[in-house]
Design goal:
Pfam families: Beta-lactamase (PF00144)
Radius of gyration: 28 Å
Number of domains: 2
CATH architecture of the largest domain: 3-Layer(aba) Sandwich
Helix content: 25-40%
InterPro entries: AmpC-like, Beta-lactam-related, Beta-lactam/transpept-like
Keywords: Carboxypeptidase, Hydrolase, Protease, Signal
Structural class: alpha+beta
Largest sheet: 9 strands, antiparallel
GO molecular function: carboxypeptidase activity
Strand order of the largest sheet: 14-13-12-24-23-22-21-20-19
CATH superfamily of the largest domain: DD-peptidase/beta-lactamase superfamily
Distance between the termini: 91 Å
Number of helices: 11
Protein name: D-alanyl-D-alanine carboxypeptidase
CATH class of the largest domain: Alpha Beta
Length: about 500
Amino acid sequence: MSSKKCNKMGLYGFFCGLLFCASELIAAKPVFTIVAQNNLPKEVMANSILSIQYLVKNETLHTRQLTMRSISGVTVYNPGQSDACTLPFTLAPGESCQLNLKLNASQMGRGIRKKGPVICKTRGPNDPRPSSFLCAQPSESDSLDVKVLPCTSGRCLPNALASSLRQLTTAYRQQFGIPAVVAGVWLPGQGELIIEEGYADLNSLTPVSRLDHVRIGSITKSFTVTVMLQLISEGKLSLQTMLSAFMPALQNSNATMAQLADMRSGIFNFTEDAALDEELFQDLTRFWLPAQLINAANQNLPYFPAGADWHYSNTNTVIIGSIIEQLSQRPIWQEIEQRILAPLGLKNTFYPLTLDLPTPFAHGYGFSPLEDVTNTNPSFAGASGAMISRLDDLKRWAVALGQGLVLTPAMQAQRIASLQPIVFAPCPDTVPGRPLVTCPEYNRYGLGIGELSGWIGHTAEFFGYSAVVMYNPQSQGVIVIWMNIFGVGEHLPTKLFLEYLTVLS
């Protein structure tokens, strides 16, 4: 082979190597990084409206004017952020902005399959259209990936109803300054609707999602009492067993298990104890033992003799949790997990042992002006209100609670028969920081379950969060509403639930 030919081949290899290295560098470091800040469900109905937020960062060495390639059904909006990406937007080297996208499933065809958003350099300073060059998109795991399920007969609420419920929810958010509302309406024969309004985090204005975990407060009571009813069916306890069999030193120890579960024991509510509340506010992250909560309640006189009246008391359910632990020789969280969560497949529902919420989660807010109280220790509520869940699991629990799926038919019949009319003031979910007002959260209350306008379930409020979970025995419909706010003097999810019923009627 001639030396001239060898030299040519050598130069060829050299330039190929350079091109290979350059392409590797480009592949290793994209010109723009686009990272999702929240998650989307994999499947949605065609009447869904969702939001997602991306952090877009300019990784080049030059200031760039950027825009987004259009995607059917996807629009860019600005929730009022100073660092929002408003098309077209300009980023200096290393700068970033928040790209907020609204997805209207009715305009997305069959959905978006691992596509975009694609961010490109504009064609020029006066031409905002995306260039064909210098583009980037998120990693596969962060790309838009949503399947749209068609609104065939009975699968989606009629448009007029859906629109009315959305408008009502938006009005409530604005009227009461609620950071976020997530609601689910499932009505057999009419269809379903999921509403996601507002922000999971007020600092970053990250959109809220049905996938977000929240603290579900007193809905925990419906789980704890369900375990108690299971133990009664197993012959390990009875509804007439007295508290004195386990805690004879407590006031009103002649109260029965039934009276503890249906709030007729007369035992003082520990969250109304001023000294205990003062200790709590000194450190919201403090860990509390059930015995500390029960002892604080026992320092106060009972409201009335056991069985003489009705008064909501978180102490009742903390006591039931402690009795369950004595009988089972296992912690209450384990009993709930093995007896309820695992059999029902509630994989996104937890009884936490730490401050942490599973990701993704919505921050919880309260007081005025609003403070982030997400990291309030759930041990302060214990078996009366410590649990965490999310929308889809709460829907499944509403059905299980309403139909008695983890109880014997006889025990479920007793539970429903236990519902008795109540009159009360202040609100049943009394928590520190919430004004004492009269509010009808239930028409009737029974064994860890309440009834309101023919629907049965439970309401909830804990630091930063409030919720309602309801099931209709006649229609088998379910309505779940949660908000990441508490302490406003009214139980807003219940008020909104009743407004929903007016619209749906």
